[in-house]
């Protein structure tokens, strides 16, 4: 299997063969997770520490479940009430962690680049569970696995990513991954929610949902990240839904068999109509949650193999 990295910090360093390796192994874990005995020995004897400096119910639960199913000793550190709040620096945290001898560290942090900094200071494998507006690699990988399973391929598709692009690490990681796998990516949203220089990523940019969704194979809606907004990015949620919320009328411009995605948590009636979100013929939102556990199992399995090989060398 082709995966040589010590960490998983972003999609950017990965080549198409490495992305495919993770997805292929994740397929095996989808099968395992659907069986009666869901346990593997891949991480037996290893310690996994989850450090979430930002709250995230589904991502943390997914990583915790993934680690336990692989046989790791899993510990969740409550960073909201930790020493970091009392003024401890990220470097001090890294030194403390090194003294505990963990093997895998899963980190979510509100500042871009913080996870990368931590990875430089610890003696274990680090997985980025989202850092600021930078990247969220396992979300892009689980989205890719969902698309591949539903569409039968992960190349030469037209994928529309809609909504709050500017504040979304999910959009950034997906944009990079889908580009590497030779897809046509369209970004749709109000100009106030588009990052500067976005066209340099080789994607198409639209501020009209109907134009952007025309002929799309995949429609990926994004959450309005109000906690990252410090100004009037949108006139009102009602106006936003009218122009950019996904409903049946707008979805009709996409292909008849287009799938609808959302990384969650959803703001129903703001980004997406509840009927569309729950439509079992179009929505793959629940499949995304299922694929998340499998992808995170695959990523940790591959990092553990590299970790063991490096220690044995």
Contiguous uncertain segments of 5+ residues: none
**Helix content estimate:** 40-55%
Rough outline = globular
Secondary-structure element string: HEHEHEHEHEHEEHEHHEHH
Report the β-strand fraction as a percent range.
5-15%
Major sheet: arrangement of strands = 7-6-5-8-9
Mean pLDDT: 92
Rg over C-alpha atoms, rounded to the nearest angstrom: 19 Å
First-residue to last-residue Cα separation? 19 Å
Number of strands: 9
What does the main sheet amount to? 5 strands, parallel
Query: What structural category arises from helix and sheet content?
Result: alpha/beta
User: What is the tally of helical segments?
Assistant: 11
Write structural notes for this entry.
- With 313 residues, this protein is of the alpha/beta class.
- It is built from eleven helices and nine strands.
- It has helices at 16-33, 57-69, 90-100, 114-121, 137-151, 169-180, 209-213, 237-244, 248-251, 274-277, 285-312; strands spanning 47-52, 73-78, 104-109, 125-131, 158-162, 184-188, 204-206, 218-221, 259-261.
- The strands form two sheets. The protein has a five-stranded parallel β-sheet.
- The longest helix has 28 residues, at 285-312.
- The chain starts with 15 loop residues before the first helix and ends with a helix.
Write the layout of secondary structure elements.
Layout: H1 16-33, E1 47-52, H2 57-69, E2 73-78, H3 90-100, E3 104-109, H4 114-121, E4 125-131, H5 137-151, E5 158-162, H6 169-180, E6 184-188, E7 204-206, H7 209-213, E8 218-221, H8 237-244, H9 248-251, E9 259-261, H10 274-277, H11 285-312
Parallel strand pairs: 1-2, 1-3, 3-4, 5-6, 5-8, 6-7, 8-9
Helix pairs in contact: 1-5, 1-11, 2-11, 3-4, 5-6, 5-11
């Amino acid at each position: 299997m082709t995966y040589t990295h010590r960490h998983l910090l972003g999609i950017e360093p990965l080549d198409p063969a490495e992305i495919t390796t993770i997805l292929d192994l994740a397929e095996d874990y989808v099968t395992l997770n659907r069986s009666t005995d869901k346990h593997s020995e891949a991480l037996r004897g290893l310690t996994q520490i989850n450090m979430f400096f930002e709250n995230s119910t589904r991502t943390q639960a997914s990583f915790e479940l993934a680690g336990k199913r692989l046989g790791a000793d899993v510990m969740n550190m409550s960073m909201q009430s930790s020493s970091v709040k009392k003024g401890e620096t990220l470097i001090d945290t890294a030194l403390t962690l090194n003294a505990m001898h963990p093997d895998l560290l899963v980190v979510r942090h509100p500042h871009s680049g913080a996870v990368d900094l931590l990875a430089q200071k610890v003696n274990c494998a680090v997985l980025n569970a989202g850092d600021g507006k930078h990247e969220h690699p396992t979300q892009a990988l689980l989205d890719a696995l969902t698309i591949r399973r539903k569409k039968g391929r992960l190349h030469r598709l037209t994928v529309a990513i809609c909504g709050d692009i500017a504040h979304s690490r999910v959009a950034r990681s997906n944009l990079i991954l889908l580009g590497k796998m030779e897809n046509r990516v369209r970004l749709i949203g109000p100009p106030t929610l588009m990052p500067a220089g976005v066209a340099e990523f080789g994607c198409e940019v639209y501020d009209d949902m109907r134009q952007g969704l025309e002929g799309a194979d995949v429609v990926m809606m994004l959450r309005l990240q109000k906690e990252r907004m410090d100004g009037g990015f949108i006139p009102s949620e009602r106006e936003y839904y009218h122009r950019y919320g996904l409903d049946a009328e707008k979805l009709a411009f996409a292909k008849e068999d287009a799938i609808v995605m959302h990384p969650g948590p959803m703001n129903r009636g703001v980004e997406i109509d509840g009927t569309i979100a729950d439509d079992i013929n179009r929505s793959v939102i629940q499949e995304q949650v299922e694929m998340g556990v499998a992808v995170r199992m695959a990523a940790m399995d591959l990092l553990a193999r590299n970790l063991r090989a490096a220690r044995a060398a």
